[in-house]
Amino acid sequence: MTNEVNDLLQALREGRMTLDEVADEFRQRKWPRREPPPTTYDELAKAELEDPEPHLPGSFDDVTLAYHKGEISDAQYEVLASAMARSKEAEDRSSDAN
């Protein structure tokens, strides 16, 4: 399955983009968000009975999958995770300002 995240990871693996270039793309993109975690007892009980969250294509799940498949290194994973976190922090700050 192809998506922007997988395309960027493929470009990194093939040497068409550097780690810094991919990280910059990660910092610039808007990442999909999952539903907020349960907070009430009823929500927690319901969540416990549900299946684990499915893989979300185009999300950081693709990076985690590539890491577990040995397609990216520990160091690459750390850089990309940091870039994704910075993107979400910037998005949160922007939302808070509105």
Topology:
Layout: H1 4-14, H2 19-28, H3 41-49, H4 61-68, H5 74-97
Proportion of residues in β-strands: under 5%
Span between termini: 36 Å
The counted number of beta strands is: 0
Shape: globular
Order of helices and strands: HHHHH
Mean pLDDT score, rounded? 89
How many DSSP H or I helices? Answer: 5
Poorly predicted tracts of residues: none
- Mind telling me the C-alpha Rg? 16 Å
In terms of structural class, how would the helical and strand content be classed? mainly alpha
Main β sheet profile: none
User: How much helical structure, as a percent, in the residues?
Assistant: 55-70%
Mind explaining what this structure looks like?
- This protein is mainly α and 98 residues long.
- It has helices at 4-14, 19-28, 41-49, 61-68, 74-97.
- It has a domain at 18-31 and 55-98.
- It contains 5 helices and no strands.
- The model has no long low-confidence stretch (mean pLDDT 89).
